[in-house]
Amino acid sequence: MIRRWGLADEPAHTPLPDDDVVHSCQYENKLDAPGYRDVTLVVKVAVGVDEIRSISLALSAADSERLAADLVAVHRLAWTRGKPLDADENEPRPAWL
Predict the structure, then answer these.
(1) Please, are residues 59 and 40 in contact by the beta-carbon 8 Å criterion?
(2) For 60-78, what is each residue's pLDDT tens digit?
(3) Residue range 2-12, pLDDT digits in tens
(4) What is the pTM of this model?
(5) What is the DSSP code string of 62-86?
(6) Which of 27, 58, 69, 77 lies 20 to 30 Å (CA to CA) from residue 41?
């Protein structure tokens, strides 16, 4: 089956490193099911000099709640000191804060 579908000829993917290095990533989208609080976040991760891979992070309802609270707290703290250092010159404070 592997040979018939041509999977044997595909190059091996570079595995994600399993060390404690921080990797640059970009939020791509989310996957969810109506009525459920679990969510899967899809991010693009730089795993090499010229390689970007999409990975999915499945979060439980409890982890989703913690992540949302942590993200809001980071943004709220950055804006309480005035304009954040990484804000654009004309960027207004987000209404959701």
Answers:
(1) yes
(2) 999 999 999 999 999 999 9
(3) 666 666 666 66
(4) 0.71
(5) HHHHHHHHHHHHHHHHHHHTSS-TT
(6) 77
